[in-house]
Amino acid sequence: MNVTAIIAEDEPLLRDELAEQLVKLWPEIDILGKPADGIDALRLIVMHKPDIAFLDIQMPGMTGLEVARQVAGRCHVVFVTAFDQYAIGAFEQGAVDYVMKPISVPRLATTITRLKDRIEHPPADLSGLLGQLQRQSEGRSFLRWVNASVGNSIKLITVDEICYFKADSKYTLVVTAASESLIRKPIKELCDELDPATFWQIHRSTLVNVGAIAGVTRDVRGNLQVKLKQRPELLHVSESYTHLFKQM
Questions:
Q1: Does one domain contain both 70 and 134?
Q2: Are residues 177 and 236 in the same domain?
């Protein structure tokens, strides 16, 4: 049976990867659109009436939670999230399923199996779930800037400007497109304070801004390295983190 879907996700690489894997695993699915924000997602759902909406919980314009509330009962919802607490709540309280970031092909295959079982039935009632997830999302905030040492002065740097963080002896190096500076906050602490959907740990000493990644390459030994859009250096990816880039 042919089914229709939209994928609402503001990360282009992840959005395209999810669409590609869905079509590979479920040839009967027709992707009607891949909006990058919640407002466009709502417009496409109202216009095209898809069977399924894959909604990123955190995206600009309107969050996935807000979109789901607006389209309640019109289509089956699969939440896309980097946060386990959201995913578990969504699954246990009646959402069709969830997709965790980064995409796992076996886990996505499980999601498709569950969708096939439910697609003939009316969409789940998400009213209770949405309220819980909204409270959870409002209860967590992420680091928005750092105060870094540049020579004898202190500079405020927003996290959006930062290409990557790298441990450097007792300090952590903060690297933007045009500058390098130091903070005393360790990588482990940054991992807990930064949005995991925006900053990926690719090495025990390195956190990279997903938006700063131009692509990946391999060295002569086959080790994975991250290429940056605005920096010449390559960042080494530890073996335990290569799964983040397996579809690139």
A1: yes
A2: yes
* 7 and 96 together in one domain: yes
Nearest to 202 by CA among 179, 236, 227: 236
Which of these three, 109, 139, 169, is where a domain ends?
Answer: 139
Last residue of a domain, one of 139, 155, 171: 139
**How much is the pTM?**
0.57
Q: State the amino acid at position 47 in one-letter form.
A: M
Compute CA distances 171 → 1, 2, 9, 240, whole Å.
57, 55, 34, 24
pLDDT tens, residue by residue, 205-244? 999 999 999 989 988 888 899 999 999 999 999 988 887 7
CB 41 within 8 A of CB 77: no
Helices marked H in the chain = 12-25, 38-48, 64-70, 84-92, 105-118, 127-139, 187-193
Total tally of structural domains belonging to the chain: 2
Residues 71 and 126 in one domain: yes
**Of 208, 195, 196, which Cα lies nearest the Cα of 237?**
208
Q: What is the DSSP letter of 179?
A: -
- What distance in Å separates the CA atoms of residue 62 and residue 57, rounded to the nearest whole number? 9
Residue 167, Cβ density class (10 Å: 0-12 exposed, 13-18 middle, ≥19 buried): middle
50-70: average pLDDT: 89
* Residues facing 111 on adjacent strands: none
